[in-house]
Amino acid sequence: MTKSAVPRRHLPSSPFKAPVEPPLRQFSVGDRVSHDEHGLGRVVGIEEGIAVLVDFGSVQKRILSPYTKMSAL
């Protein structure tokens, strides 16, 4: 069975609570970050609400929002 890429919408008449959306993570240029796949890095550029450019030492990667695999240190 495959999972739909589109989240289900919550109906106001539903007896269940609406799913809570996690707050968007904010990063600034110079922030140290940890990424699940690429390791430790430093934010070198920001595209507001779209992506951040992170220097991981050997490679620079453009990480797209919502940054699920990345956290600030």
Automatic annotation (TrEMBL):
* Biased composition range(s): Basic residues: 1-11
Top-level lineage group = Bacteria
Region feature Disordered, mapped onto this chain:
1-23
InterPro entries with a match to the protein in the record: CarD-like/TRCF_RID_sf (IPR036101)
Q: Which protein, by its recorded name, is this?
A: ATP-binding protein
Instruction: Identify the species of origin.
Output: Streptomyces roseus
Taxonomy of the source species:
Bacteria, Bacillati, Actinomycetota, Actinomycetes, Kitasatosporales
